[in-house]
Amino acid sequence: MSSCKEAMEFRFACKKFNKYKTIPSEILGEILEATLLSPSSFGMQPWRITVAQSQNVKDDLRKACWDQPQLSECSDVIIFTCENYLLKPGSDYVKERFMERGLDEEATDRYIEVYNNFITPKMAKEGCLEAWSEKQAYIAAANLMTCAASLKVDSCPIEGFEEDSVKKILDLDEDYSIALLVALGYRDQEQSKRHRLEPFDVVSFI
Ligand SMILES: Cc1cc2nc3c(=O)[nH]c(=O)nc-3n(C[C@H](O)[C@H](O)[C@H](O)COP(=O)(O)O)c2cc1C
Known about the structure:
The chain is of the alpha+beta class. It contains nine helices and four strands. It has a four-stranded antiparallel β-sheet with strand order 1-2-4-3, with helices on both faces. It starts with a helix and ends with a helix. The site of flavin mononucleotide has 12 residues, from β3. Flavin mononucleotide binds next to β3.
């Protein structure tokens, strides 16, 4: 384990993975466990993870991701999907998420009402609910990459994909959306040069 800053400095968007080096299962398990600790709005945990390890599936994913070589050369592809249908007001899933907090009935009902008022307008606009759950998935993906880096595992986040093609590979219907993919493995290239704005261009204190 390294410090958070060391992990952030180690991480870069790896384009060329060593295709002969596989992530040991205990290391992958640690990365996934840490990812599951990520926060989510209202604690709804709207995302799910599929880990693609078979070469056939990774080759198919490469085709669905603009033929980016990272997908077929890395050790594992993590696919963040969102189960948006679970989030509808009144669903058992929503009730369970609030009930597991162990609050009394009145407080639980109040919480559910706040959630319903928050989520209902998002359901009225096309794509808005999906965008909300995908935001949660991005937080988890960031944590996944930082945790991987702390264990000297390289990564590349992938937003360049054809959603319908990825859904076909995973056999998912319109109730689901694909947030993003993350290729994980070990680098077979020098770390690329970092381009970042200066702190004073990005951060302000008030
Ligand atoms: C949400 C997201 C999607 C990305 N999608 C891709 C992608 O499809 N292919 C790729 O090669 N890099 C992708 N990247 C990597 C960025 O290009 C990269 O993070 C950025 O240029 C900064 O470089 P660094 O990560 O090496 O510091 C993505 C990054 C993020 C955060």
